[in-house]
Design brief:
With about 200 residues, this protein is mostly helical. Helices cover about 75% and strands about 0% of the residues. It has seven helices and no strands. The radius of gyration is 19 Å and the shape is globular.
Length: about 200
C-alpha cells in the first residue's frame, strides 16, 4: 500500500497547458528531476508509484518521454483536449527558446568558454538524473516484483548501456520482456484462487 496521499486532479486544460509550459521551460539538460518534483511533490497530480509506472511507459513509447508523459496525464484527466493542451504546453514556449538559443549559439559555439560551459552543464544534468533516480527508489518497495528484482534489473540495464554499450533497441526488449514476465508471474502468484 502506498504511503502517498491520493493524487489531485488538474483543474482545467488551461492549468495543464500552463503547468507543462512551466515544466518544459525548466527542463534544460535532465528533465527527470524537474518532472518528478513538479508533478509528484509540488502539484501532487501523481503519487511516486504512479510516476514510476507512468514514466516507465512514457520511456517505452516512441518520442520524447516527457512529452509522452504529459499527453498521458492530459488524456487521463480531460481526454483528447487534455492531451493536446499538455502537448501544446510542452512544445510552444520551448520551440521559441530553442530557436533563439540556436541563433545565439551559432555566434559563440567555437569559443572555448562556451565549450567549457556546455561540458559543465552535462555534469549538472547527470547529477540531476541520478538524484531523481535515488529519490524514486522508495517507490520500488511496493513494486510487485520486489526491491531485489528491481535492483537487479536496474543494475543489468546500467551494465548493458554504460559498460557494454548495447543500444537501447536491444536493452529495452531484452530487459523489458524479462521485467514484464517476472511482474506478471509475481502478480499471478499474489492473486488468490477463487474457492471451488
Amino acid at each position: 500500500m502506498s504511503a502517498d496521499p491520493s493524487p489531485q486532479r488538474p483543474g482545467s486544460c488551461r492549468e495543464l497547458f500552463l503547468a507543462f509550459t512551466w515544466l518544459a521551460l525548466q527542463g534544460f539538460g535532465g528533465v527527470l528531476a524537474v518532472v518528478q518534483r513538479e508533478l509528484v511533490d509540488r502539484r501532487r497530480w501523481l503519487t511516486r508509484e504512479q510516476f514510476v509506472d507512468d514514466w516507465a511507459m512514457a520511456q517505452l513509447m516512441p518520442g520524447p518521454n516527457v512529452v509522452n508523459l504529459s499527453m498521458m496525464i492530459g488524456d487521463r484527466h480531460f481526454g483528447l483536449r487534455g492531451a493536446l493542451a499538455a502537448l501544446a504546453g510542452m512544445l510552444a514556449a520551448p520551440l521559441v527558446v530553442v530557436l533563439l538559443v540556436a541563433i545565439l549559439w551559432a555566434q559563440v559555439a567555437s569559443h572555448p568558454l562556451a565549450q567549457g560551459a556546455l561540458r559543465g552543464m552535462g555534469a549538472v544534468s547527470a547529477g540531476l538524473v541520478m538524484g531523481a533516480g535515488l529519490r524514486l527508489m522508495g517507490a520500488l518497495r511496493s513494486n510487485p516484483m520486489g526491491p531485489a528484482a528491481c535492483g537487479l534489473l536496474a543494475l543489468a540495464s546500467f551494465v548493458m548501456v554504460a559498460w557494454l554499450r548495447w543500444p537501447l533497441t536491444v536493452v529495452l526488449p531484452v530487459l523489458g520482456l524479462a521485467a514484464c514476465s517476472w511482474a506478471w508471474w509475481c502478480l499471478g502468484a499474489t492473486v488468490e484462487e477463487p474457492p471451488a
